[in-house]
Amino acid sequence: MTSGTDKHPWLTLVGLGEDGVLAPGGAEALAGADIVYGGARHLELTGGITAEKRTWPSPFATVFDDLAALRQKRVAVLATGDPMWFGIGSSLLKHFPAHELIVLPSPSAFQLAAARMGWALQETECLSVHGRPVDLLRASLYPGARILCLTSNADTPRQVADLLADEGYGRSRMTVLEHLGGTKERRVEGAAENWSAEVADFHTLALEVVADPGLRFRARTPGLADDAFRHDGKMTKQDIRAITLAELKPHPGALLWDVGAGCGSIAIEWLRAADRTRAIGLEPHFERRQMAAGNAAALGVPHLKLLDASAPEGLEDLPQPDAIFIGGGLTAPGVIEVCLAALGRGGRLVANAVTLESEAILLSAYQSHGGTLKKVSVHRASAIGGLTGWRPLMPVTQWSLTKS
């Protein structure tokens, strides 16, 4: 390994297993390092390191400045398993370019757990609630799912068991795989509905998801039933919501601005529809922000970011979106112009209107900018006396545009 410069790798990430076995090339990297970073457990497992040893600082975020000051040194970082799979590698790459790093992966916890369970990894959901809300699991539950999950500590399985029972998956099989690959490896199994086992902090959790009889399954395809959300009546209803999400076109990693978020239904369905999506909701009413936050947690996307703000002022200094939905505030001057200016090439703008005043604004935008303008009307069957008839919902005018 060469001495660090701006053009050559100076930082090596070395994966290791619970048994202390280093990734191929790891011993050479440690032998040639000036400084080795790692957790106390990692440094103890490796032993025999002649370089200066440093444990992670507290708060952890200060380590990036510390590392940046060491570019002229040879630095090695110890990490469990594969540093690039829910590991420190992704955090380091937000601060240092890839050409400054060498990554030496060991088998990940997911690989070891899949091998122990006899599961094909490509057919298994791999998630992490390590330092994250367990509510994230709610969006990944479906009958027959196999889930491998990184956890925070010994209490996480109990929290997950409670969540599964709450969601109608109490009969699901839970397997805690402790200290995978080490001398203290142990397997603990049980059903979520009566889970009471005491387990080690360091483990991987495997879930075989079984639905309770009669469960109303919530798919990730947009169009959740309206009663999946707590709301005050002012929300984008199920059929219109599905049409709206089809126009917004969520894709992995994309960011949505939800202007006038209300109870959060559009932003929540966006976050559920594709992996790694992000959403920022602007909602000036406190009660609706509370409802949106509660809905987001209950539907498995607690990372929805909600701002006490209105458009267009509240849109300043936000990260560039891939799509924008305007569900409220259309009559505020300049909202459409500010939103269009914020979008990059290929960005999508969708706006819905139910009042004549808002509809007039969309007609003007369509005449000025093009795109697609349509009116959607939904009728639902209901009882009329002893017979059945159609009851119309309020029609919605929708303007959508992809920026060229």
UniProtKB/TrEMBL annotation:
Q: Where would one find coiled-coil regions in this protein?
A: none
Q: Gene3D superfamilies under this entry?
A: Cobalt-precorrin-4 Transmethylase, Domain 1 (3.40.1010.10), Vaccinia Virus protein VP39 (3.40.50.150)
Q: Quick check: keyword Methyltransferase in the entry?
A: yes
Q: In which pathway does it act?
A: Cofactor biosynthesis; adenosylcobalamin biosynthesis
The biological processes this protein is annotated with in GO are: cobalamin biosynthetic process; methylation
Please state the span of the N-terminal signal peptide per the UniProt entry: none
> Could you cite one Gene Ontology molecular function of this protein?
protein methyltransferase activity
Q: Which SUPFAM superfamilies match?
A: S-adenosyl-L-methionine-dependent methyltransferases, Tetrapyrrole methylase
Using the record's annotation, list all stretches that form the Tetrapyrrole methylase domain: 14-192
**Protein keywords:** Cobalamin biosynthesis, Methyltransferase, S-adenosyl-L-methionine, Transferase
Stored PANTHER family: COBALT-PRECORRIN-6B C(15)-METHYLTRANSFERASE (DECARBOXYLATING) (PTHR43182), COBALT-PRECORRIN-7 C(5)-METHYLTRANSFERASE (PTHR43182:SF1)
Name-wise, this protein is Precorrin-6y methyltransferase
